[in-house]
């Protein structure tokens, strides 16, 4: 009795030829050559956006906490649980609430920005020891000034490689700009 459907192993199946395999590898190589630089820029842009969003969230949380708790809240760079002098990649929000026994200082939030991001401060912000201060009314100040800007920059990116995050009298805003590979400092509002 003959079989109408031969067994799959007996059908005369064949694998890839060496030429087919080499053409496939060449096509994959070309696609990888085009895709890798684009993917690298995508990763850099996402790091920049993520860091800018984290800074905006930090400032908004500080403003909200100042209003809710009727206390002064400062956002500043830090190496621990106190403010540091230089603008770095770790920032904290400190709430100072007056009580009968003195001031109680609480760390409300902390953020670590991507190490691939360069952080720089505007003239107003650096002149105020890099501190954004929110009063119980929700208004912000930067030292004796009403506004300040922190710039987050990806030096390896081209084009709009910086995100400037500003606090101006309680209003928090962002703007993208080209800061060159040297990551130039932002201007004040």
UniProtKB/TrEMBL annotation:
<dbReference type="GO" id="GO:0015627">
    <property type="term" value="C:type II protein secretion system complex"/>
</dbReference>
<comment type="similarity">
    <text>Belongs to the GSP H family.</text>
</comment>
<keyword id="KW-1133">Transmembrane helix</keyword>
<dbReference type="GO" id="GO:0005886">
    <property type="term" value="C:plasma membrane"/>
</dbReference>
<feature type="domain" description="General secretion pathway GspH">
    <location>
        <begin position="52"/>
        <end position="155"/>
    </location>
</feature>
<dbReference type="Pfam" id="PF12019">
    <property type="entry name" value="GspH"/>
</dbReference>
<keyword id="KW-0997">Cell inner membrane</keyword>
<protein>
    <recommendedName>
        <fullName>Type II secretion system protein H</fullName>
    </recommendedName>
</protein>
<dbReference type="InterPro" id="IPR012902">
    <property type="entry name" value="N_methyl_site"/>
</dbReference>
<dbReference type="GO" id="GO:0015628">
    <property type="term" value="P:protein secretion by the type II secretion system"/>
</dbReference>
<keyword id="KW-0472">Membrane</keyword>
<dbReference type="Pfam" id="PF07963">
    <property type="entry name" value="N_methyl"/>
</dbReference>
<dbReference type="InterPro" id="IPR045584">
    <property type="entry name" value="Pilin-like"/>
</dbReference>
<dbReference type="InterPro" id="IPR022346">
    <property type="entry name" value="T2SS_GspH"/>
</dbReference>
<keyword id="KW-0488">Methylation</keyword>
<feature type="transmembrane region" description="Helical">
    <location>
        <begin position="21"/>
        <end position="40"/>
    </location>
</feature>
<keyword id="KW-1003">Cell membrane</keyword>
<keyword id="KW-0812">Transmembrane</keyword>
């Amino acid at each position: 009795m003959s079989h109408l459907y031969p067994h799959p192993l007996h059908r005369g199946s064949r694998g890839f030829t060496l030429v087919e395999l080499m053409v496939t590898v060449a096509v994959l190589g070309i696609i990888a050559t085009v895709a890798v630089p684009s993917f690298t820029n995508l990763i850099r842009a996402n790091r920049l956006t993520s860091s800018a969003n984290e800074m905006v969230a930090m400032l908004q949380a500080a403003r909200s906490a100042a209003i809710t708790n009727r206390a002064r809240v400062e956002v500043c760079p830090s190496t621990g649980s106190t403010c540091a002098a230089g603008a770095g990649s770790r920032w904290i929000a400190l709430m100072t609430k007056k009580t009968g026994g003195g001031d109680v200082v609480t760390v409300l939030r902390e953020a670590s920005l991507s190490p691939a991001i360069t952080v720089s401060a505007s003239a107003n912000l650096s002149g105020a020891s890099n501190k954004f201060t929110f009063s119980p009314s929700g208004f912000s100040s930067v030292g004796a000034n009403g506004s300040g800007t922190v710039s987050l920059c990806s030096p390896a990116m081209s084009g709009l490689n910086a995100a400037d995050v500003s606090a101006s009298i309680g209003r928090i805003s962002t703007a993208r700009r080209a800061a060159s590979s040297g990551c130039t400092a932002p201007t004040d509002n």
